[in-house]
Design goal:
It is built from two helices and nine strands, in the order αβαββββββββ. The protein is α+β, with helices and mostly antiparallel strands. It has a nine-stranded mixed sheet with strand order 1-9-8-7-6-5-4-3-2, with no helix packed on it.
Length: 270
């Protein structure tokens, strides 16, 4: 390399350097350092039963109680689907898809599980772990974007950022009811593979985490649907354990299509 060529190369590098540094600074600025992150350590449990949207619930009882239902802003077509599921639920013939063992709850049902949770907060991502599994949600906060060709899965793809002590993230790439194996709760609530959501998670007080989901679905909903879930802190040093439903399957489906609930002795309770 001649002296002239070397000089030109150095000059070009110096010209490009500010842009490179600026790009790196811009990306790293989206990552909040450990000492600025909120403390969500410990174990947490959802407040209330597993009716997904208790704010719109009518009827007294829980998700399996006949007459109990919620009122999302469904289109007429999807309201009809939900009513059909409710009729099957009332006859004990709407099986819970997670009974198939190994099928995750998926999003947004992942925030509607009855067993304990852990929230692992790191600068580059946050993990939502549930004992009732397998359920892991990874929320990337390192500046990355959604993939332009994101395929649909149970939990989808979540990326977000911090607004003070609030984690804000969007979730896309959800399979919904496309394959008939992802529901929101046992009343039979379902959404389509076009749904996406914006979620805000924050500590509303020292012992409560609040999760507010704004769900949009151009196929199933007429307008955004806002659902809020709360999680209460459990006693210190509470442990989470993994288990498989195949070890203790309490919800088998009999030949007629009826979903059974088994007691400790293995005999149907209903």
């Amino acid at each position: 390399m001649s002296k002239l060529t070397a000089a030109i190369a150095i000059s070009l590098a110096l010209l490009l350097l500010p842009g490179i540094v600026s790009a790196q600074t811009k990306e790293s600025a989206t990552i909040v350092p450990f000492d600025k992150l909120p403390d969500w350590s410990g174990t947490w449990q959802m407040v209330g039963g597993t009716v997904f949207d208790r704010a719109s619930q009518t009827g007294e009882g829980q998700a399996l109680t006949p007459g109990v239902r919620e009122h999302p802003p469904y289109t007429p077509e999807w309201e009809a689907i939900y009513k059909k599921h409710l009729e099957l639920r009332d006859k004990d013939q709407f099986p819970d898809v997670i009974t198939n063992c190994g099928v995750p709850h998926g999003f947004p049902r992942v925030f509607n599980a009855p067993d304990p949770y852990e929230f692992v907060v790191r600068p580059e991502q946050t993990w939502v772990l549930t004992e009732n599994g397998p359920n892991i949600v990874r929320i990337y906060t390192d500046g990355r974007k959604h993939l332009p060709d994101q395929w649909e899965t149970y939990t989808g793809d979540s990326v977000g950022h911090w607004e003070g002590d609030t984690l804000v993230f969007t979730t896309i790439g959800l399979k919904g009811w496309r394959d008939k194996d992802s529901i929101l709760d046992r009343t039979g609530l379902v959404l389509s593979d076009k749904m996406h959501a914006t979620t805000r998670i924050r500590k509303s007080n020292e012992n409560t985490i609040e999760v507010q989901m704004t769900i949009e679905d151009p196929k199933a909903l007429t307008k955004p649907w806002v659902v809020t879930k709360q999680f209460r802190k459990m006693p210190p040093q509470t442990r989470l354990y993994d288990y498989a439903c195949a070890e203790n399957n309490r919800n088998p489906v009999e030949e007629s299509g009826k979903t059974l609930i088994l007691g400790p002795n293995g005999k149907p309770l209903n």
